[in-house]
Amino acid sequence: MTTMDALDRMFQVLVKTLQVKHPAFLTKPFTVGELHQQILPYRHFRRELGLETNQEYELILMELLTGARGYLDVDERLRDHLGKELNSNSLEPGRVGDFADAHVTVNATARAALPDASPSPVASSSERPVGIRTPAGAGTSTPHCRYCGGDLPMGRPLHFCPHCGQNLQVLNCPACGAEVEAGWKFCVACGKTVSNAS
What we know:
Elements (H helix, E strand, L loop, with lengths): L5 H16 L8 E2 H8 L2 H8 L4 H12 L6 E3 L1 H11 L16 E4 L1 H5 L19 E2 L10 E2 L24 E3 L6 E3 L17
Antiparallel strand pairs: 1-3, 2-3, 4-5, 6-7
Helix pairs in contact: 1-4, 4-5
């Protein structure tokens, strides 16, 4: 068995995140901008991705967006431009932003090859702390971390995920992805209405 590297880990985290937060994107296209800013932003996933700097994140994201290892289905323009950038002597990781409107899709074969982690059922509590997602229609399911999808312990106050270490008290604006504090009704970055249930 081969050792998992940063690219493998980024793809696995992406798929887990889509399963929990954006299941429709498992089978339909999404933009590079959505991936970069809302679905898998560095500020929320740096621990789980195991990347020390934003520059490392941008480089791995750029590699993923070239269609490397068949993880994403990308168009030729994106593959060629970012591929040339990765091989350039004057590499600019920020070039990912130049392709914010380009569409990519998770490769179905690559996704099917990932191990499936099914949560085990546990008795649920009637109260759910902020930052914890319970699947719709599953009143007795284990709550899950909204970042990594890991099962969260029941019957105690939770401030951080025991699996990925992310702060569960922080919410994100569904429109722009900016951090929103618990209890806020509107996003301070874009002014959109914020639901505390997300």
